[in-house]
Amino acid sequence: MEAIFSTRDVRVVLAAAASLQKTTQGFLADYDQARADVQKALSVVRTEAAQRDLAAIPLHRLKDVTEGRLRLGPLEQAGYTSVRDVLRATPYELQLLPGVGPQSARHIHAAAQQIERAVADSVSVRIDVDRQDAPATDLLKALKRLVNAGPTLERTHRLAGTVQARLAQAVPAARPARSRLRMLFAGAKGRDRAREAVREISSLLAEATADEAATLFAQASVDLLRPVSGDFEAWTDYEIQAPEYQGLLAEISGVGPDRPAAEGFLSEDIAERVKAQELDDTHRTVSLRGYQAFGARYALAQRRAIIGDEMGLGKTVVAIAALAHLRAGGGTHFVVVCPASVLINWLREIERRSTLKAYPLHGPERAEATAEWVRRGGVAVTTFAMLDQLAIPGGLAVEMLVVDEAHYIKNPGAKRSLAVAAWCSRVDRVLFLSGTPMENRVEEFRNLVAYLQPGLAAELRLNDSVAGPTAFRKAVAPVYLRRNQQDVLDELPPVLRVDEWEEMSAADLDVYRSAVSAGKWMLMRRAAYAVPAESAKLERLVEIVKEAADNELKVIVFSYFRDVLAVVGEALGPHVHGPITGGLSAARRQRIVDTFSAAAGHAVLLSQIEAGGTGLNLQAASVVIICEPQLKPTVEAQAIARAHRMGQVRTVQAHRLLTVDSVDERLLEILDDKAELFDAYARRSEVAENTAGAIDISDESVARRIVEEEQRRLAAGNV
């Protein structure tokens, strides 16, 4: 073994180790400094938030701390109104007030400090776009460095920690091997340790080269040190990447949701087993909220389970995280089954949130896609209707089957249910996703459980649900995990924006072609609703509203067009409020909103986007649907802001309905280009900070450009 490394070889190895060690230490120092900067800025924001809370606590609450023994009349007469007023004075200043002695002054001040400590321990920090003060801006700037380093930052940090720990132990032990004389004086045990350490370092260097560790660490340092050029840039980036900022803030601040609720009220033994489950992020390109990571671990640990999180909490991301973990462990083939209306969303989310390749096994080219998926591996995404028609070799090992909107198979005798059941019998790992609450639908729920764990299904009893949702969750914990928005609200961004991509139906496409040929811009924009019975967008809209109804959430549907709102109203039935249109008086509009807000549980309000997007408070709603993209981003932002404002107690879900290869996609491309140009402009000009409509663009120029591009595309047969 001694002949493997000459002293010259050892010096080369140690020099390479020193270089890697320097790069690693540099990155770790930059990482620690970036997080320390966040903690420092967070401390200021916390202090200010605590001071606002203390200012809102009336003076008389000091008596609660001392069981009513304090006399506060002299302070009230002197103009003291809040606990903060007391804290801003010293005990000596208090005792100078008429009727307040030294001992009373000390007791009063001590009582105020006790409340101050309690507030400091419980104060929560939420970034509010309506409060863009200096402390909040500084916090955003500190967070931005970590956010812009990307979702791989934590993985890079873990790798750097491992490299640093191994080098810190091996390098000192290897140093005697640099010369024969040092080895001679090291003794037999020292020589053995030195040789072993050199082998360890050599192995580590080989691994680091394969992982491109030095490049990763250097690039991460560059990202962490990249300057944030302005306040406006920080706030703009926050609005674009709010989930990343909020998740990082929750992790660094140590403030998260109630643990039992975030873990779905699972029993202690199941919760511990789930938390012990590893979750490899090698093939995942998005960071997870804490409750999402727990959900992915649950799916992996339980092997055959249902994730029933309330709509908007990211069940798709949870499933993708589980698939990515299995891919890292050697799994190659996966299947996702979903309604046709969300197939495109699945394809986009898989390729956006992971490195996995997604294949649409649907439509006229499904045979070619199936063959490619079988040959190369990845995620096959198909529909309930197509599942039993897939020509897949019987010996192909499928690592996991994911069934989205699993309540679609609640009837075990239906054709699609039988197809899913057959697949469940051939795949070891199965994950059902459904946002529909099951607590009061035990028979339907039992049918779903029977696909996964027949023995548990047979044990489910009606009284498990009668005892309440928490008791129900505990009874079905081995197979069912559900969290509501209020369970995990602390980790959620204020607004969850979801782009719902649909393929146009044949009828949609016929109307769209005619509109493009005639150059009818407005008809192009609403062609997807021209034939309601065959409208892909309308089908998805109805599904979103149905799930919101199941969760007793109020919904606002916005469109630029009155006739689109009429189509939506007809599809949703008689219990719809509105529509709010530009022709209504302010009083009439407010009466409609008041009736909608006062309705118990679920309700739907229809509104023209420019009529309902300004001047109304619609915080009773927590689901917003925008029927088509708008030409001005501020119009959509203002419409969403009607629901997302002070008084809103639920996270707002904003769904924008879009069609592929259409005016929608062309419009978003142009808006994205304009946003990038504006971003570059904003970095050079402080004027842009106060120009809300700066990224809005000319309606006429957009219309003309898109009509001409679509006419050329369709003429070339690219549809």
TrEMBL record:
Keywords: ATP-binding, Helicase, Hydrolase, Nucleotide-binding. SMART domains: DEXDc (SM00487), HELICc (SM00490). It comes from the Bacteria. GO terms for molecular function: ATP binding; helicase activity; hydrolase activity. Gene3D superfamilies: 5' to 3' exonuclease, C-terminal subdomain (1.10.150.20), P-loop containing nucleotide triphosphate hydrolases (3.40.50.300), Tandem AAA-ATPase domain (3.40.50.10810). CDD domains: DEXHc_Snf, SF2_C_SNF. Residues 537-695 form the Helicase C-terminal domain. Residues 296-455 form the Helicase ATP-binding domain. This is Helicase SNF2. It comes from Acrocarpospora phusangensis.
